[in-house]
Amino acid sequence: MTVAATKEYVGVARDRVGNFNGKQLVYASWDHHLLFAAPFLLYAAPQMSFRELVEGPLTALVQPDPDGAAIDWTQVEWLKSNQPWTPDFERSLADNGIGHKDQIRFRTPNLTTLAVAA
Amino acid sequence: MSTVFIALQANEETRPIIEAIEIDNPHAVVNRQPAMVKIDAPNRLVIRKETIEEQIGRAFDLQELHINLITLGGNVDEDDETLTLSWAE
Amino acid sequence: MDMKATKKKLGLKEKYRVMTRDLGWEPGYHTKEEIFPYATYEGIKVHDWDKWEDPFRLTMDAYWKYQAEKERKFYAIIDAHAQNNGHLNITDGRYLSALKVFLQAISPGEYAAHKGFSRVGREFPGVGTQVACQMQAIDEIRHAQTQIHALSNYNKYYNGFHAFADARDRMWYNTVARSFFDDAMSAGPFEFMIAIGFSFEYVLTNLLFVPFMSGAAYNGDMATVTFGFSAQSDEARHMTLGLECIKFMLEQDPDNLPIVQGWLDKWFWRGFRVLGLVSTMMDYMLPKRVMSWREAWEIYGVENGGALFKDLARYGIRPPKGWDDAEKATDHMSHQIMLGLYQWSFGTSLHSWIPSDEDMAWLSAKYPTTFDKYYRPRWEHIRKLAAEGKQFKNFGLAKLCQTCQLPIVFTEPDDPTMACHRETTYKGEKYHFCSDGCQHVFENEPEKYIQAWLPMPALFAELEGDIGKWMDWVSLRDGQDNGDYVGSVDQRNFEQWRGLATSNS
């Protein structure tokens, strides 16, 4: 559908990658770990390796969760755009196909400390 | 059946108005909450100028209700003598 | 020659006719289409504008008389509040956070509604409609002014009130309300009426003003009760105008039904998301609570909204599309948003806190199926972290919804353990949403929402993530306006001054 208007209506996307100073946004979400109220918003260069993203900001951010220190990043199940996916830790975000505003999710089925009270 | 309602500020001006509404609408339920009074009724509530005037002992213009009105629910119909709230049956 | 004065007073219906309809005229040297160029492009067909009638039949002379009376009552109480240190009569300093949300997010919305009604009052061709919109435009600016005036008394003593206009425009939790009003104001006149006059006024303001203001009374804040109820006395008229507007559109032409239904679906959901902030004020920010958000939703959402949609069924209207998802969200939303406010409290112009044992007992009684199961474990862990001196701060910020702009704190309607992930690609750009409702709104008008200024992405696009620069830009004073209530300047001042007010030492 289109916007009802008196003449042709064309919008300009506000958050295009060109507005982000050579970097990009990446969203990251840890399934069933809702101590973190929303998916994280990360600001990273597309050349950053996946390993740097995980071992840097992501590892730091998950620490407040009681399961945070127990994550084995080699064992987690990954999703990108809600589809199962396997990252290459040594390659860059760009080479891993992680575009601007893409969301990655990770699952740790054995870590459930704060999940649901009995 | 649906509930219509009117809520008024709880003060000296509305006390006799609420009494008048209770007289005219014996089926209504009066809920007293902090600083407000909410009156619920099934499908229909009628507020009559004449009954309010009897309660307060002076002439009353139904539009004076606006001063202390908090909220209402239902289709409104107002003329000189009555204000009616109703939902379609 | 003496005019013979007519003794007979006009009846209400007669007076309404004379003082609205008879103010109109037939244009002579321009066509109606030239004078009212925005009346038809939305597709709403109107055959007879005279069928529009204000059920209260309020005319301008009576309007001024009663509004003046409301103002006199309002200022008598505001003066007494200022003269009697009313700011110390509130139950607890935590309550101030609710007032800060109100001033930053809601009062500017009143001003936006004023601008919108001024505009649509000009754009509608019908005289009855023009008069009603003019009254509402004046009401709305009165609300903005009386709210700002009443709360300025708190600004003399407490933090977080001083820069509400900057906070409204730039602060991440306030752009939720801002985008709601901007969306309505950039729509055509009929959609504006559905957005503000119907969905917001009729379906939602009861939830905003009535239990919350009654709650303000319960918390000793007579200044807020007064502006709240003074504003709400106008809302009864606004709701009636909104309901009249929708019935008018539906009665004028059967082709209007699908357009109106589409707007109802959109604006119900947009409004429900804005109410997320209100749910949090009710369940967490009132030290003494009249009723829970869930209880208020039962009365004003389920019962009254349900009655309304049942009534409108005679025109072919069905309840809004998001109705069932709203019902499912009601037991979760206040907890989800308060958890967010707390972990991002370094970036809020208000204080939040960890609920006490007593608060948590109340929450579990009011939310027996959800609080203990899902939310208590998180709060207790956050409390444990605080006890260890590690206050939980989530510097990961948040993914925001492209439509409602809230951080995506919401879960799947049928699985409260699973965050709701919704995304779409439009013209090569990726967009994220908090719910099916917000995704539908976007997909109906993508060209509109791709322009949204989202505050968290903007922090990186415009300030490269520099939080200090961002704080200056939103006029947030670090260490004064933000953070946990416990240990705050507001807490220290409130307790010290209240001690002085209740003792001689």
Counted by DSSP, the helix tally of chain B is 3
Q: What's the β-strand tally of chain B? A: 7
Summarize the main sheet of chain A.
Answer: 5 strands, mixed
- Which fold name is given in CATH as the topology of chain A? Ubiquitin-like (UB roll)
Distance between the termini of chain A: 47 Å
Side-by-side strand order of the widest sheet of chain B: 2-3-1-5
| CATH architecture call of chain A | Roll
CATH superfamily of chain B: Monooxygenase component MmoB/DmpM
Radius of gyration of chain B: 12 Å
- Considering DSSP H and I runs of 4 or more, what fraction of the residues of chain A is helical? 10-25%
CATH-defined fold name of chain B = Phenol Hydroxylase P2 Protein
Low-confidence stretches of chain B: none
Number of domains of chain B: 1
Structural class of chain A: alpha+beta
Which percent bin holds the helix content of chain B?
10-25%
**What is the total domain count of chain A?**
1
CATH class of chain B: Alpha Beta
Shape of chain B: globular
Gross morphology of chain A is globular
The main sheet of chain A orders its strands as 2-1-5-3-4
Order of helices and strands of chain B: EHEEEHHEEE
Protein name (chain A): Phenol hydroxylase
InterPro entries (chain A): Phenol_hydroxylase (IPR006756), Phenol_hydroxylase_sf (IPR043010)
Organism (chain A): Aromatoleum toluvorans
GO molecular function, one term (chain B): monooxygenase activity
What report would you give on this structure?
The complex is a heterotrimer of chains A (118), B (89) and C (505). Chain A is globular. Chain A has one helix at residues 50-62, and strands at residues 24-30, 40-44, 77-80, 83-84, 102-107. In chain A, a hairpin with a 2-residue loop joins strand 3 and strand 4. With 118 residues, chain A is an alpha+beta fold. Chain A has a single domain (17-107), classed as Ubiquitin-like (UB roll) (Roll). In chain A, strands 2-1-5-3-4 form a 5-stranded mixed beta sheet, covered by helices on one side. By secondary structure, chain B is α+β, with helices and mostly antiparallel strands. Chain B has one domain: Monooxygenase component MmoB/DmpM (Phenol Hydroxylase P2 Protein), CATH 3.90.56. In chain B, 25% of the residues lie in helices and 43% in strands. Chain B has helices spanning 15-24, 49-56, 65-68; strands at residues 3-9, 29-33, 36-42, 44-48, 69-73, 75-78, 82-86. Chain C has one domain (36-353, 392-502): Ribonucleotide Reductase, subunit A (Orthogonal Bundle), CATH 1.10.620. Helix content of chain C is 62%, strand content 3%. Chain C has helices at 12-19, 32-35, 60-83, 95-123, 127-155, 164-170, 175-185, 189-218, 222-252, 256-285, 293-312, 323-329, 333-343, 357-366, 371-387, 436-444, 446-449, 455-463, 467-473, 489-502, and strands spanning 411-412, 415-419, 422-426, 429-433. In chain C, the strands form 2 sheets. A two-stranded antiparallel sheet of chain C has the order 1-2. A two-stranded antiparallel ribbon of chain C has the order 3-4. The longest helix of chain C is centred in the middle third of the chain and has 31 residues, at 222-252. Chain C starts with 11 loop residues before the first helix and ends with a helix. Chains A and C meet through strand 1, strand 2 and strand 5 of A and helix 13, helix 15, strand 2, strand 4 and helix 17 of C. Chain A: InterPro entries: Phenol_hydroxylase, Phenol_hydroxylase_sf. Chain A: It holds the Pfam family Phenol_monoox. Chain A: This is Phenol hydroxylase. Chain B: Keywords: Monooxygenase, Oxidoreductase. Chain B: Belongs to the TmoD/XamoD family. Chain B: One of its GO terms (molecular function) is monooxygenase activity.
